[in-house]
Design goal:
single chain, alpha+beta, 9-stranded mixed β-sheet, 4-stranded antiparallel β-sheet, 7 helices, 17 strands
């Protein structure tokens, strides 16, 4: 450690604020309701445009402000927004299996990613991004709408990493086109990085990263080059990696350190995770054990695969690296080219 120069006093280090952040005064309605866990900002704006949301009996528009003391109704049903008075920031990681849709309710009656999550009182889980029904892997959930919005917004430049098995001939020219940009039906798209991850013949694994989350973007990019995606799994979202211990259909809640790292990634002040009561702990543990894939076994020490530095990019490799500079455990890369565990 370098010594300080003589005659200079060290500047006091500001202590991060980790107490609950109170929210007073009028603010944009979609932000207030998102923080209360009612829904995402985009979803709430859709309710406004459809005339489904009212405040104090009057229809509202995007950008309008209100407080937690106002009366909110959706389809003439009262919304409870007391949770928005204090920021409650909890985060789950979930290993999504095939066959589940990333929506709260499915009109076709298919299973959803919310079905196995622990139940909450006075708030609800918000999914951070989506995966299509045939894609497996990491999905993040939070009770804080502001955190969800910042992690999903394109301006935050949060990258997502996928393990993808491609069926077809792939050459260097194709990879360069995918990294330079391809015109899809909804605009230009590209991978920020592509690296080989094993396989042989015309079935090969790659790891690809994106800085946005458009619908089926990974699949559409590869299909634009005349090849087909036969397996797709998200293994990282920003600084959060999918740990190898988390089997399909299982979830875990991030600890304080991991949530703080995630918060700082998008410029939010850390807040304390609320302590669960013994009854809540017991209920959540029962629900976790009911989820398939883990047999109810307890994990050992909780070491989250959350990095406070961006994955290293050198020499064309795309190996996730933890905050200590070593490859992060459980980065989600397939151990064998033919496996998607």
């Amino acid at each position: 450690m370098a010594s300080e120069r003589p005659g200079r006093k060290a500047k006091p280090t500001a202590k991060p604020v980790v107490d609950a952040v109170t929210n007073e005064g009028p603010e944009r309605i979609q932000k207030l309701l998102a923080r209360a866990g009612i829904g995402s900002r985009r979803e709430i704006e859709g309710w406004m445009e459809a005339g489904r949301l009212t405040v104090n009996g009057e229809a509202v528009t995007p950008g309008q402000k209100a407080t937690v003391n106002d009366r909110f109704e959706l389809d003439e049903k009262r919304l409870e927004v007391a949770a928005a008075a204090v920021t409650v920031r909890r985060v789950l990681i979930y290993n999504k299996p095939e066959g589940e849709v990333t929506t709260r309710k499915d009109p076709e009656g298919r299973p959803t990613v919310f079905d196995r999550l622990p139940r909450l009182k006075d708030t609800r889980w918000i999914s951070i991004g989506r995966l299509d029904i045939n894609t497996t892997g990491l999905v993040l959930f939070t009770t804080d709408g502001e955190l969800a919005n910042r992690l999903m917004h394109p301006s935050s430049q949060i990258d997502r990493e996928y393990a993808v098995r491609v069926f077809g001939e792939v050459d260097d020219a194709m990879i360069e086109r995918l990294k330079a940009g391809v015109l899809l039906e909804d605009g230009m798209a590209k991978f920020s990085d592509i690296s080989q991850a094993g396989g042989s013949g015309i079935n090969r694994w790659y790891h690809v990263t994106l800085l946005e989350g458009r619908n089926r973007e990974v699949r559409r990019l590869w299909e634009s080059q005349g090849v087909r995606v036969s397996r797709l799994k998200r293994v990282r979202y920003g600084p959060v990696f999918l740990p190898s211990r988390l089997t399909l259909g299982k979830w875990e809640e991030l600890d304080q350190k991991a949530v703080d790292t995630l918060s700082r990634t998008v410029g939010l002040t850390p807040v304390d995770i609320p302590q669960k009561t013994p009854d809540e702990k017991a209920a959540h543990e029962r629900q976790r054990r009911k989820s398939p894939g883990g047999g109810g076994k307890k994990t050992g020490s909780r070491r989250w695969d959350v990095s406070d530095t961006k994955p290293a990019r050198s020499g064309g490799s795309d190996k996730p690296r933890g905050s200590a500079g070593k490859p992060a455990r459980g980065s989600g890369r397939p151990r064998k080219p033919h496996s998607d565990r």
